Amino acid sequence: MTNELKLAAAPISWGVCETPGWGKQLDPERVLTDMKDLGITHTEFGPAGFLPEDAIERAEFLSERGMTAIGGFYPAVMHRDDHDPLPALREELEAYRAAGAEILVLSLDNGTSSYDDKRELTDEEWALTARRLNEAHELAASYGVRAVVHQHVGTLCESPVAVERLINDTEIELCLDTGHMLAGGNDPLAFVGEHADRVGHVHLKDVDSAQATKVLNGDIAYSDAVADGMYRPLGTGDAQIGAIIRTLREAGYDGWYVMEQDYRILDDSQIEQAVRDVQDSTAFVRSI
Ligand SMILES: O=C1C[C@@H](O)[C@H](O)[C@@H](O)C1=O
């Protein structure tokens, strides 16, 4: 196991999030420069509006700054029979093709633009979602893109029940987000021990499990817990990042590891701390 780990970054560590009203959104110039300063040359796109919308312009914007896109996070409403997510997905995949991006990270959007609500899909909604996920998987493959599902707090794939259904009833791989797995009540290390073959992409995120338990129990809203620092620099929380990386590598996973410490920057004084945290996380991963 001497091959180098493929390390990338994502704008969420700089507070750039798809949720309206999340907090201060640092501009792409700052975010991409910081990534480059950390020796990172690959990034996820970040939410709509962060980079130029036009696919060609977006790809040029990145390459002029010495960066390459590996793909991005794409929330999609898949469970409603009055809404077909596939036409918009097709457009997104065209942009991926133009940018040479290889990974489409789907999340199961609940339609509320917030991660503070929790619910399971009904059996009927799940049957429709599972069918559409398999279609999305095939559609993406026809563009040369690997579609993966991101289990995520406050989406319709959060809990152990939802993750199990995804594994059993679909063909699609997962974006294993170590922090969201733990925060959603799953055991990320046990998961990779059992299902490393279903991991198609990895988001490395560490989490304070005491804070995460409060979110799970409904004692604090997810967005408030993130603002309170529920996500920690890699290696300083409870997600067992080192053991997870080692297990994945032993199982032959050779895809991307994207560093993500979800940040809500509510005050300018927090910006430099966010940047220091990414520096610490990068150093931690490189030490493994
Ligand atoms: O992969 C991700 C993308 C983010 O924008 C999202 O909010 C975050 O939680 C995440 O894990």
From TrEMBL:
Pfam assignment, any one = AP_endonuc_2
Q: What is this protein called?
A: Inosose dehydratase
Q: Which residues form the Xylose isomerase-like TIM barrel domain?
A: 35-273
Q: Which domain of life is it from?
A: Bacteria
Which PANTHER family does this one have? HYDROXYPYRUVATE ISOMERASE, INOSOSE DEHYDRATASE
Establish whether keyword Ubl conjugation is in the entry: no
Extract the InterPro entries matched here.
IolE/XylAMocC-like, Xyl_isomerase-like_sf, Xyl_isomerase-like_TIM-brl
What EC number(s) does its UniProt record assign?
4.2.1.44
SUPFAM superfamilies, from UniProt? Answer: Xylose isomerase-like (SSF51658)
Task: For this UniProt record, give its keywords in alphabetical order, as a comma-separated list.
Answer: Carbohydrate metabolism, Lyase
Gene3D superfamilies tied to this protein: Divalent-metal-dependent TIM barrel enzymes
Q: Which GO terms fall under molecular function for this chain's record? A: myo-inosose-2 dehydratase activity
Q: Lyase as a keyword?
A: yes
